[in-house]
């Protein structure tokens, strides 16, 4: 899980003890991410999905999270995994270091536009051209509970879809086009979308949107021909 620095306190305290529930879709994963892929689980929390990936045969998997408490918990529960505490950008990997990245229920924990753009943009740097981003998150919900809290907190946060929970968390649900737009702006093309329902941290059920997107090829640098020197006309004959 991840959050901007202003909301990180929740994930260092109350949030670090939560049981995360947002599931992988094994069929979708298998269709686009081969077992030999180098995979980054960004916002890995305590390594729940990182461990699932490793158990499914993905051996080159790394998990990264901004919360020190969640990473510490992950190292206790999954000492065999590579889990890194990385509080800022850039992450300590080279351009195109990964064949695929997971971004699972991460943007819902990041209420600010600029922070969301930075996260997806960094994944655009880290996933090689032709590689895959597998994003799953929570779009705006249509039930009465969510519509009421969207309206109640919209003035405080300046964004419809941001809300607080009684235990101190700040979360965000998104118009689907917002999620698609973030992916496109980071240099990915959406290949597949899938909807479904998931359990939430507070024991409710929410609809989710999954996106599989491919990193666009890097356009070649323009080739500028060498300048041709002008022809020198012979001067007047002398003799």
From TrEMBL:
Looking up InterPro entries in the UniProt record yields: SAM-dependent_MTases_sf (IPR029063)
Q: Where is the composition biased (Pro residues)?
A: 219-233
Query: Which Gene3D superfamilies does the UniProt record give?
Result: Vaccinia Virus protein VP39 (3.40.50.150)
Enzyme Commission designation: 2.1.1.163
Q: From the UniProt annotation, give the residues forming the signal peptide.
A: none
Say which enzyme class the record assigns.
transferase
Sorted alphabetically, the Gene Ontology BP terms of this entry are: methylation
Q: Where is this region: Disordered?
A: 214-239
Q: What is this protein called?
A: Demethylmenaquinone methyltransferase
The organism is Streptomyces platensis
For this protein's source organism, the top of the classification is: Bacteria, Bacillati, Actinomycetota, Actinomycetes, Kitasatosporales
């Amino acid at each position: 899980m991840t959050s901007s620095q202003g909301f990180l306190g929740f994930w260092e305290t109350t949030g670090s003890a939560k049981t995360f529930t947002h599931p992988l879709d094994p069929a979708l994963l298998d269709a686009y991410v081969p077992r030999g892929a180098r995979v980054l689980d960004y916002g890995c929390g305590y390594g729940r999905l990182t461990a699932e990936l490793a158990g499914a045969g993905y051996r080159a998997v790394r998990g990264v999270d901004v919360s020190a408490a969640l990473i510490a918990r992950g190292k206790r529960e999954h000492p065999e995994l590579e889990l890194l505490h990385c509080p800022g950008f850039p992450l300590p990997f080279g351009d195109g270091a990964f064949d695929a990245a997971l971004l699972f229920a991460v943007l819902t924990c990041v209420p600010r536009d600029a922070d969301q753009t930075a996260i997806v943009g960094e994944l655009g740097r880290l996933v090689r051209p032709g590689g895959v981003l597998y994003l799953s998150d929570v779009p705006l919900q249509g039930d009465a509970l969510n519509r009421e809290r969207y309206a109640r907190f919209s003035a405080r946060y300046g964004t419809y879809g941001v809300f607080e929970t009684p235990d101190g968390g700040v979360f965000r649900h998104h118009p689907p086009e917002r999620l698609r737009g973030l992916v496109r702006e980071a240099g990915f093309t959406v290949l597949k979308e899938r909807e479904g329902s998931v359990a939430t941290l507070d024991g409710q059920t929410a609809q989710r949107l999954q996106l599989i997107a491919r990193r666009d090829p890097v356009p070649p640098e323009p080739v500028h021909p060498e300048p041709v020197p002008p022809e020198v006309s012979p001067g007047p004959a002398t003799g």
